[in-house]
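Researcher: Excuse me, tokens okay?
***
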Amino acid sequence: MGANFQSKPISWISIICSIILLLTYFTTSSLSARPKHSIPPEYRLNPSAIEPSAILEYYNLPTALLPKSAIIQHFNSFDGKFTVKLKRPCSYQVDGNYLKFESTISVIISDNSISNVEGIKLKVLSQWVSLTKVIRVQDRLTLTAGKVSRQSLIFNFQRNPSICVIM
């Protein structure tokens, strides 16, 4: 003798509760998740103890984007805000690109790019124009200042110039 099952319609309340539970689960898990590339704990705990070049390398950017003498003033691995200090403004040339650095430089750093750049200028013709962003795509680096973009091979930006000329 077989069991006699009757199908019951699913109530709207059950459907709505299920949807709310699913949305809550996915929203909560995405909010508590770490950023795609969270900096290792030793960087977060004491950012001034590391070299700015280590952070650039962690985000797959070349070290010559900042002078060797840069010292980390602030770094937030969650929003990418990154500020460094120099003893004094200076400039140098990398692959035909003249870069001028103020004593305080701040950027938003993320994988393969920096944006919201403050404190770095690029010489365009005979004028210094504020650098706005730098993007790495494979083996190329694009520096954007105003309406001008320049490309260079990453290889040229791998080593910091030994001298940052004091301005």
Summary: The longest helix spans residues 12-32. Residues 41-166 form a domain with the at5g01610, DUF538 DOMAIN fold (CATH 2.30.240).
